[in-house]
């Protein structure tokens, strides 16, 4: 098959992938679609039993190809789920760019990564390219807090380098640092009273939560640190002093010590606001993931940059304030590098990906497979 034919096949694979609904928690049909494709390419495929803990209708997909050469074991990772509105996606190709018809997301996050993996494996098979052991890892419920990656068995988190194809922006962007991320749920407890007859007898849980927010540093705290309150809900009738209020929020930073300082500040703001009002608050903190930073001379980073150059992509090292499966996998001992696969305006109905970027991403993966053998 010539170059144009391969690109046409890549685009067809991507279009077919985005037409398969896979909102978070309902990834089964798409997982089976991927499994069939991977088996046809000679990989052994299985689904783990993580659905029992994640609540999805399927497990994570793990595929392996033994290879015929010595070298580093490379893991290619993406996620199966898409955000809403993501049902009945109708992809449209115009002027070399793929978009949705306009009333849903496109699903390039992360089906651009999935399509690139499938096409790369197809091409190395057609060209009889020697390769070291390869693994493919496709997770569920990434969009819901990296749930599938957290549910992986230890035995499935192994390899010398994992390329996580889940960043937006031009192909060639390489995430070298990601933050530590904490979230909280706080429940303020006050005392109800008639707001028009005897408000003095009440203790407003909503007022406590509001006072706590006013004491917090929110937004961008410094170049590496952010904090946010995402939801406040409580009360009922306008003539009743609210006895309960629920609040959620987060803080994250590339500096693990700074994020802990901010976390303690937010925690203290909530506790002091409740105590001063004569109420109470129950706060539940969850560390969503640990941050990481690659050393400038990390040999795995060098491998990825060489692969980008070989594929005609300009490597660019970036830091991110977001998380990905790479954060979980790295913390669990699998060296991981998150890479852009060309998607833009993700999580919105304007989401798009250029055909040229899909093609470049495939070439980067093939070059990385070659670099793994050299290593």
Structural overview:
There is one protein chain. The chain has 375 residues and is an alpha+beta fold. The protein contains ten helices and 18 strands. The protein has two domains: 260 residues, Aminopeptidase (3-Layer(aba) Sandwich), CATH 3.40.630.10; 109 residues, Alpha-Beta Plaits (2-Layer Sandwich). Helices cover 34% and strands 27% of the residues. The strands form three sheets. Strands 1, 2, 3, 6, 7, 8, 14, 15 and 16 form a nine-stranded mixed β-sheet that branches. A five-stranded antiparallel β-sheet has the order 10-11-12-9-13. The chain has a four-stranded antiparallel β-sheet with strand order 4-5-18-17. Strand 17 and strand 18 form a beta hairpin. The model has no long low-confidence stretch (mean pLDDT 97).
Shape: elongated
Number of helices: 10
**Helix-strand string:** HHEHEEEEHEHEEEHEEEHEEHEHEEEH
Radius of gyration: 23 Å
What's the end-to-end separation, in Å?
Answer: 29 Å
| CATH H-level homologous superfamily name of the largest domain | Zn peptidases
Task: Please describe the structure with a list of short key phrases separated by commas or semicolons.
elongated, 10 helices, alpha+beta, Alpha-Beta Plaits, 375 residues, Aminopeptidase, 18 strands, five-stranded antiparallel beta sheet, nine-stranded mixed beta sheet
Quick structural overview:
The chain is an alpha+beta fold. The chain folds into two domains: 3-178 and 291-374, 3-Layer(aba) Sandwich (Aminopeptidase), CATH 3.40.630; 181-289, Alpha-Beta Plaits (2-Layer Sandwich).
Topology (elements, then pairings):
Layout: H1 3-19, H2 28-40, E1 44-47, H3 51-54, E2 61-65, E3 74-79, E4 91-94, E5 97-100, H4 108-126, E6 134-139, H5 147-150, E7 161-167, E8 173-178, E9 180-189, H6 205-215, E10 219-222, E11 225-234, E12 244-253, H7 256-277, E13 280-289, E14 292-293, H8 299-310, E15 316-319, H9 325-331, E16 336-340, E17 343-344, E18 352-354, H10 355-374
Parallel strand pairs: 3-6, 3-7, 7-16, 8-15
Antiparallel strand pairs: 1-2, 2-6, 4-5, 5-18, 8-14, 8-16, 9-12, 9-13, 10-11, 11-12, 17-18
